[in-house]
Amino acid sequence: MKEVPLGAGSPLPLQSMLTTSTQDVCACLEQVHRLQEVGCHIVRLAIESSKDLDGFEAVCKESPLPVVADIHFNHTLAIEAAKRGAAKLRINPGNIGDAQRVNAVIEAANKADIPIRIGVNAGSLEEDLKKAHNLTLAEKMVKSAERSVEHFEERGFFSIVLSAKASDVPTTIEVYQRLSMSLPHIPLHLGVTEAGTAWEGSIRSAVGIGTLLAVGIGDTLRVSLTADPIEEIRVARALLAALDLGADDRATLISCPSCSRCKVDLFSIANTVEQRLAAIKKPLKVAVMGCVVNGPGEAAGADIGVACGKGTGVIFSKGKVLYTVEEAQIIDALLKELEIEETTCH
Predict the structure, then answer these.
(1) In which band, very low, low, confident or very high, does the pLDDT at 124 lie, cut at 50, 70 and 90?
(2) How far apart are CA 25 and CA 18, in angstroms?
(3) Average pLDDT over residues 146-174
(4) What pairing do the DSSP bridges indicate for beta strands 285-289 and 304-308?
(5) What average pLDDT does the segment 92-104 reach?
(6) What pTM does this model have?
(7) 3, 38, 51, 229: which has the fewest C-beta neighbours closer than 10 Å?
(8) Residue 6 contacts by C-beta under 8 Å, 6 or more apart in sequence?
(9) Residue 86 — pLDDT band, cuts 50, 70, 90?
(10) Is 181 exposed, middle or buried (0-12, 13-18, 19+ CB in 10 A)?
(11) Burial label, 332 (beta-carbon count in 10 A; 0-12, 13-18, 19+)
(12) SS in 3 state form for the chain?
């Protein structure tokens, strides 16, 4: 299993959480491999009871990606997970129990030489903070995070990652902005919790996470969607690409929004090309343009592209026209040129 650096200017690792039963080792590993294929770097796996521990241990042994133990309420499960191969523990001090239980988890992580992600969540704050009516939700979350970090560091434990998520996007942004100033030495795991379905959740996550990344806040992230975890990574990669923060192993699509000037089935062409690009792990830029207005000129930087006309398409590369094909041949021609670029691109 390859170690994944976090913080200190390292590339932003993308995370997701397995949806398979922890006791179904084969299903877990199959999902891990699928996630790795689309660019995931770290996976998280829930441990709900002692019945999950054997499966968790087996997954840790076979997984090509680091496996984080996700623990709520039961601190003894976190202790046991640390012994059984967890690459990191994720606990929420708001529900894990009193200081003595937290200390036991810290001791276990220290002995296993693994980090802990302190996961503050708007829905499970400590009781005294819940009752602090003089504080806003953002202020309560920040105080909870600061309190936990202080406690961990007083215990001599510094391998800390911090997340502080809310389903409300403005609150999430405010919390992370405050934490980046009050705890600048702590790596921050970004996310908007309970963001929603693939469509709405992608938008909410892009706004929340993107706003923070655009100003240099964040060291790792998860796009939380009510969808296949594969979609979480695809959205996360697209988000990073939009900010020029992604790795250089991803092909990206440029496509115009279409209008009445478009005389071909642009949506179908763009969707087919996008599906093809998902399997490419080279820094190719591909353009699908609906007419000459947004043709080779505006997409001159594309490695390969098409500018469509009335029932035709002009295939071009780096702004240079290669040839013209009929509409029925556009996709095949574009994919053919794409294959050539894929094999020659460095």
Answers:
(1) confident
(2) 11
(3) 95
(4) parallel
(5) 88
(6) 0.88
(7) 3
(8) 13, 115, 161, 187, 219, 220
(9) very high
(10) exposed
(11) exposed
(12) CCCCCCCCCCCCCEEEECCCCCCCHHHHHHHHHHHHHCCCCEEEEECCCHHHHHHHHHHHHHCCCCEEEECCCCHHHHHHHHHCCCCEEEECHHHHCCHHHHHHHHHHHHHHCCCEEEEEECCCCCHHHHCCCCCCHHHHHHHHHHHHHHHHHHCCCCCEEEEEECCCHHHHHHHHHHHHHHCCCCCEEECCCCCCEHHHHHHHHHHHHHHHHHCCCCCEECCCCECCHHHHHHHHHHHHHHCCCCCCCCCEEEECCCCCCCCCCHHHHHHHHHHHHCCCCCCCEEEEECCHHHCCCCCCCCCEEEEECCCEEEEEECCEEEEEEEHHHHHHHHHHHHHHHHHHCC
pLDDT of res. 2: 63
